[in-house]
Amino acid sequence: MIENKSREKESDKPAGASRRDFLKQSSVITAIALTPAAAVKASDLKLDEKLSAAMEQMPLNIEINGKPYNLKVEPRLTLLDLLRERLKLTGTKKGCDQGQCGACTVHVNGVRTNSCLSLAIMNEGAKVTTIEGLAKGETLHPMQEAFIKHDGFQCGYCTPGQIMSAVACIHEGHAGSDDEIREFMSGNICRCGAYANIVNAIKEVKAEGKV
Amino acid sequence: MNNFQYSRVSSQAAAIAEVAKNPSAKFVAGGTNLIDLMKYGVMAPDKLIDINHTGAASIKKETGTLHIGATVTNSVAAENADVLKYQPLLSQAMLMGASPQLRNKATMGGNLLQRTRCAYFYDISAPCNKREPGSGCSAIEGYNRMHAIFGASEACIAVNPSDMNVALVALDAVIMVSGPKGSRKIPMADFHRLPGSHPELDSTLDRKEIITGIVIPDNKLAGHTTYLKVRDRTSYAFALISVAVALEMEGNTIKDIRLAMGGVAHKPWRLTAAEQMLKGKTASVDNFRMAAELAMKGAKAYEHNAFKLKMAPNTMIQALKTASGIKA
Question: Alpha carbon of B268 to those of B148, B172, B251, B265: distances in Å?
Fold first, then answer.
């Protein structure tokens, strides 16, 4: 019954709805199919959102890509979800969400960090740089240019994390040899296997001394 | 993740007072393990107490000791000039743990308390005595390739996953802790426990106590150190077997020695019998083989980790060869 109703709703959507919308819809349908009726009703009335809004919200002052934000956040919000879901800075990617893939790598006070394992609230007063903050206007960062030139990606999903990590790798002084680059880039997994080209991109940027 | 309260404290005393008030509160520093476990639902504290601003983030060389604050990150400690000069083994071990991003967040105190990576501990649908005492151990009859070969019990065969801990136990580190009853020092060898019938307890630290720092006594072992870690990929993986070696050599004679193994037990595994056997002996492959045989006494494998019975002594022999610089 409930399922049918939801399907009707879905068919009301205009053709050409984005893949993201479809994924959102279909996971909602799955959730509804698996959830007791009372909870579905509560969900229809948005009670869960009201409940969570009533939970403790804490002030957070944070600077992201040079722009200061005064926010209120739940303690459980990760820095990654703050960036993507609240501030719509979707350049930073959610891969494993468990600190195993590096797709969510950003710089916090100049230090590369897995934003998925960092609570936003623990970054009070921090200066965060994401992939969106790397380019200067229309001019790409040298590492971005080098990734394009050396074909340092295929699907591109890990790329923002790879680039943030690569910039830090040079800043830290860990790009002295191919082996050192591989070791200090090991926290960024690329399932397309663009590793050889990523190493070449980092080597070139290091050699040019632009970072 | 379940929601929770969060508070930021500015002193160790405040942290101790705060954690005493709420039996479900936990300290958080780097959070690289705790937040992961909270996402999985393995841990669900009501409150997190942020201890990053409690003045425990410095490294001090003092007469006879090196003191590393509890909230110093693994990256900072691993590249610190005094750590590299006085305790290079610790730096070597830490740089083989995790990834640069994780080491940038993970702290010394947090790494000491890092929980096992046993897949059944993480899987909240599976019985696990460590996560839920009395529910059973899924690993004993399950896929136990990563599991213990020393000191396990009927209740738990999980291993301590830390590389740092292996170096610290080899270096006779002392863990400094404070609690409502005052401060105390716990020798590293007594800090972690064997599972016995209480695998839910990883360490001897009381819930109301806070780690303030790690003290490592000076030694003459800095010239010959090796941390050899064997894993499924070249980097960024937990140890199948790891061995920490530190030697004081006089010519070809081993004047003093520290040996410890990782990936084999519920605690970092100091190889005392092998140390005693090698002390005063010539560095030779034959002697290393004999010591490895001694070290493996009492080892017990499960269905999927019998390979560790060969890998462990071989890793130990190779690490001793590298540290002592002998070929062949």
Answer: 11, 12, 30, 7
Q: What is the pLDDT of residues A24-76, one digit of tens each?
A: 445 544 444 455 555 555 556 666 655 555 568 999 999 999 999 999 999 99
Domain that holds residue B13: 5-50
Domain identity same for A160 and A115: no
Number of domains in chain A: 3
Determine, yes or no, domain membership for B44: yes
Which residues 50-69 of chain A have a CB within 8 Å of chain B? 52, 55-56, 58
Distance CA(B16)–CA(B208), nearest Å, equals 6
Boundary of a domain, candidates A100, A133, A166: A133
**Number of CB pairs < 8 Å for A and B?**
83
Q: How far apart are the C-alpha atoms of B240 and B232, rounded to whole Å?
A: 7
Which residues of chain B lie closer than 8 angstroms to A98, CB-CB? 36, 39
Inter-chain contact B105–A75, Cβ cutoff 8 Å?
no
What pLDDT, in 10s, does the model give residues B11-49? Answer: 999 999 999 999 999 999 999 999 999 999 999 999 999
DSSP 3-state of A207: helix
Q: Provide mean pLDDT across the span B293-301.
A: 98
DSSP class of B293: H
Give the pTM.
0.90
User: Which residues from chain A sit within 8 angstroms of residue B5, using beta carbons?
Assistant: 56, 75
CB contacts of A165 in chain B (<8 Å) are 100-101
Rounded mean pLDDT, B222-242: 97
The verdict on A198 touching B (C-beta cutoff 8 Å) is no
Distances A75 to A44, A88, A127, B35, B46 between C-alpha atoms, Å: 25, 19, 19, 11, 11
Whether the CB of A169 is below 8 Å from some CB of chain B: the reply is yes
Least CA distance to A122: which residue of chain B?
B50
**ipTM for the predicted complex:** 0.96
Query: Hey, are the CB atoms on B101 and A118 less than 8 Å from each other?
Result: no
Which residue from A119, A172, A187 is facing B102, i.e. has the nearest CB? A187
Residue B225 and residue B8: Cα distance in Å, rounded? 39
Q: How many domains does chain B have?
A: 2
Residues from chain B contacting residue A99 (CB–CB below 8 Å): 32, 36, 101-102
Terminal-residue alpha carbon distance, chain B: 54
**Span B165-182, pLDDT tens digits:** 999 999 999 999 999 999
Radius of gyration of chain A (CA): 21
